[in-house]
Each structure stands twice: as structure tokens, then as C-alpha cells.
Amino acid sequence: MKRNALIRIADWQQERETLLAIRVAVFVEEQGVPLELEEDEHDARASHLLATLPEAGAVGTARLLDNGHIGRMAVRAPWRSRGIGSALLQALIEHAHDRGTDELFLNAQCSAESFYQRFGFLAEGDVFDDAGIPHRRMRLITP
User: How would DSSP label each residue in 6-33?
Assistant: First the structure.
């Protein structure tokens, strides 16, 4: 069953704890990424999106850097497979386009490559390790 999440731009300074709580739950607790890798120097300058549901509060997040790098896409486990990740990614693509950024890239966990391919992202190069998880660079060029 798909839910209609509210996707909005979040202010890192004011909503840092909420955004990080989602990322820590997904990347650190579920996937074993070291906590010290979860927050970085890019967060303060990135555009962050936050997905919320009336019945659950904050359930997903993603960020976009000025160079077109999409990252830190995370949806809490109970809310996956409900269209929230798709809504976040579509909103990031639209946000990038509105800012004049027509070439986007991301480092997809290999298990999520097909998800990104549905949005037109194409895999590039070899698989590489990032925090102990296999990844592949993917790129999207929009007209």
C-alpha cells in the first residue's frame, strides 16, 4: 500500500537531528556504516529533503550537493516499498532541474541499482566498496 508522504526541503541547521536520526537508523544501525562517516562537511551546504507521514512523522531523507551529487537517500525500514523513496528521488531530480543542474550522479548500493535505473540513471564503471558495501556510480542527464 502506497502512502502519500509530504516531501519538503529541510533546513539542516534547524532539522539536523531529525535528518540524522533517519540516516543513523538506516545506514549505521541496519547496514553497519560507522557512525563517524554519517555526517560530513557537505551537510551544511547541501539541499536536504525530508519525507513525513501524518501517522509516523519523519520517515525518509535525501540530499543534493551543488555539483549534482545525490546521496544519503534513506527511508526507515517500516516505510519502504510504499513509494516514499521514489517520491524523494523524483523531488530531488526536480529540485536539481529548478536550480539549473541537469546532470546528476550518485553512488548507488548495488542492491539498489534497479531502483535508480527506473528513473533513467545509468551505471558507470566498476563496482567499488564504500563503508563495506558494494556501490556503483550512476549518472542521469536530463534535457
Answer: EEEEE-HHHHHHHHHHHHIIIIIIIT--
| Alpha-helix residue ranges (DSSP H) falling in the chain | 12-23, 84-98, 113-117
Q: Is 77 helix (H, G, I), strand (E, B) or coil?
A: helix
The CA distance from 95 to 77, in Å, is 25
pLDDT tens for the 143 residues of the chain, in order: 445 789 999 999 999 999 999 999 999 999 998 888 889 999 999 999 999 999 899 999 999 999 999 999 999 999 999 999 999 999 999 999 999 998 999 999 999 999 999 999 999 999 998 888 899 999 998 76
Q: Let me know: does 72 contact 131? Beta carbons within 8 Å.
A: no
CA distances for 119 relative to 30, 89, 93, 112, 125, angstroms: 25, 8, 9, 12, 19
